[in-house]
Design a protein that fits this description.
This protein is 36% helix and 14% strand. It is an alpha/beta fold. It folds into 2 domains: 7-357, TIM Barrel, CATH 3.20.20; 384-551, Rossmann fold (3-Layer(aba) Sandwich), CATH 3.40.50.
């Protein structure tokens, strides 16, 4: 058993921790070693979940949290107490609607890139880490270091730090540093790099189309920087990198398009050997169509480990999937050396986080603090970008713009109840505006309104191939889709998410990107619209989508 890698970065284990990994590994049965490779999804309030986890003994769980923080903490404490080996407890802590629902509501990466103040990013990262630790989380699937290059991409969108390489590096590295300083393993994703294919790997295997020279100058630089910063894990995604495969194989054919999540060339040869990453490689969710459109769902589990990942993310049928991986070990489809290495790396991550010395008493105390809300709200107020105001309309006031027509399709999120309504109209009413919500009806009488306000609420949308301005839905019908009011009524369009709606509305006179749909961001936009604070004019992406006419 080769454990020499355990003392090297990023694990950096001391002799005592190395001894724990070695002793624990030797004591595990084959079935328990297999179970350590699985990170199972945990959501809802199923009373039988604890018994199921106790029976399966997985290496980790990823929790999708409900709204009761104390109940969530109690659930994680109970799961850890029942686990013979401490659990890796992970979450997608990316801010905005991916924040803890009972924690401080925080800006997402694109909003942080718009602020472009690494000190703010460090503050927000500290809040994320401290709240996660207080809950019992020890692993975050962040930061996203994808490049927001293809503006039609609905999967990168607000999850990345924008389109500029240096901006991404400037914010991703302090996020990694702060999380890991507080005992949360960070995860750089989505290897080998998303953002140049505008499709969604939840639906199909996406393609990174860059040449290796281009890749080295972009994603190669970002991943090397994350590795140099000591990132403990990297998520291997259902993304192909044909240029690298073709550089290694003379005539790869369809093999050039194999997803990284099951590609030994991309995980072992490129990431481990060439880039020198010594940490844990976790697959992206193993039942996304980016993988299952390539191979059978059950066969994918052992291929994930054989292809160089150390942990399998999610399983709908863990008993059957664990049996498949065990059979692959026993019949040699999963080489013994690769299997051993993967299990050791899972244990090494636990030791690097100090889980082997974890206190038997779980975390206590407040999950969220009022002082952190002050910091977060101040950051949210700095994020919204005034892209253009060709009318010189802002600021607005009840005296000049009392009668407001709000046109909106609501807030849409595939991971939450959707759509639901914006709070902003009620906030406007409390400021003294007379607010009317647009419904399907004949054309609006311009004499009846002083302001039209479009509210768009689509952040990154998993499993939806495109985000676009759905004029028919906003207008109420076929005819309404073609009506534009801004020649007769002053009009403002605010996107609380996807930053590229000028592609579908290039001539809207006033356009604002606010990046996050949370109520706290809506309140910040009210303050800015009314002139209480100065606007941010920095865009982390090209909001004009390369269209010259959209600037006017």
């Amino acid at each position: 058993m080769d454990t020499s890698f355990l003392s090297r970065a990023p694990f950096g284990l001391d002799a005592r921790a190395v001894a724990w990994v070695e002793t624990t590994y030797r004591a595990l049965s084959l079935q328990d070693k297999v179970a350590q490779l699985f990170n199972l999804l945990s959501r809802g309030t199923d009373p039988g979940e604890l018994d199921r986890l106790t029976r399966l003994r997985p290496g980790g769980i990823t929790r999708y949290f409900g709204r009761d923080g104390e109940a969530e903490r109690a659930r994680l404490v109970a799961a850890q107490k029942a686990a013979p080996i401490p659990l890796l407890v992970s979450a997608d802590l990316e801010g905005s609607r991916m924040s803890l629902p009972f924690g401080t509501q925080l800006p997402n990466p694109l909003a942080l890139a718009a602020i472009d103040d690494p000190a703010v990013t460090a503050d927000i990262s500290r809040i994320i880490a401290e709240e996660a630790v207080s809950l019992g989380v020890n692993w975050s699937f962040a930061p996203v270091i994808d490049i927001n290059h293809a503006f039609r991409s609905s999967i990168v969108g607000t999850r990345s730090f924008g389109s500029d390489l240096e901006t991404i590096r400037r914010h991703a590295l302090p996020h990694i540093e702060v999380l890991q300083k507080h005992g949360i393993a960070a995860t750089a994703k989505h290897w080998p790099g998303e953002g140049y294919d505008d499709r969604d790997q939840h639906l199909l295997t996406t393609i990174n189309p860059l040449s290796m020279e281009q890749w080295e100058a972009t994603f190669g630089r970002l991943y090397r920087a994350a590795i140099d910063a000591g990132v403990l894990s990297i998520m291997s995604a259902h993304i192909a990198l044909p240029a690298y495969v073709r550089s290694q194989l003379s005539d790869p054919g369809v093999e050039a398009f194999r997803p990284a999540s099951i590609s030994r060339l991309l995980n072992i040869e490129l990431l481990r050997h060439k880039l020198g990453f010594n940490g844990l490689i976790v697959s992206d969710a193993s039942e996304m169509a980016g993988l299952t459109s390539w191979c059978r769902i059950r066969a994918a589990k052992s291929q994930i480990i054989a292809g160089g990942c150390d942990m399998i993310l999610f399983s709908r049928a863990p008993e059957e999937d664990m049996a498949e991986v065990r059979a692959a070990v026993e019949d040699g489809r999963l080489p013994a050396e690769r299997f051993e290495d993967a299990v050791l790396r899972v244990l090494a991550l636990k030791a690097a986080l100090g889980l082997h010395e974890m206190a038997t008493v779980g975390p206590t105390g407040a999950i969220a603090r009022a002082s952190d809300k002050v910091i977060a709200d101040a950051a949210l107020r700095r994020a919204p970008t005034l892209v253009k105001d060709t009318l010189g309309l802002l600021p607005i006031s009840p005296r000049r713009h009392r009668r407001v027509l709000v046109i909106s399709g609501g807030i849409i999120s595939p991971l939450h109840d959707s759509p639901h309504e914006f709070s902003l109209p009620d906030m406007l009413a409390r400021e003294g505006f007379e607010v009317t919500l647009h419904t399907q009806q004949p054309a609006v009488d311009p004499a009846g309104f002083d302001l039209v306000l479009y509210l768009l609420g689509e952040e990154t949308l998993l499993t939806r191939g495109r985000i676009f301005l759905d004029w028919a839905r906003l207008g109420g019908d076929f005819v309404g889709a073609m009506r534009r009011y801004w020649h007769d009524i002053p009009t403002i369009m605010v996107s609380f998410g996807y930053p590229y709606h000028l592609y579908d509305a290039p001539r809207v006179p006033v356009y604002i990107n606010a990046y996050c749909t949370i109520d706290e961001m809506q309140a910040a936009v009210i303050d800015l619209l009314m002139g209480r604070h100065p606007w941010n004019r920095n865009s982390p992406v090209d909001p004009f989508c390369g269209l010259e006419d959209a600037k006017y």
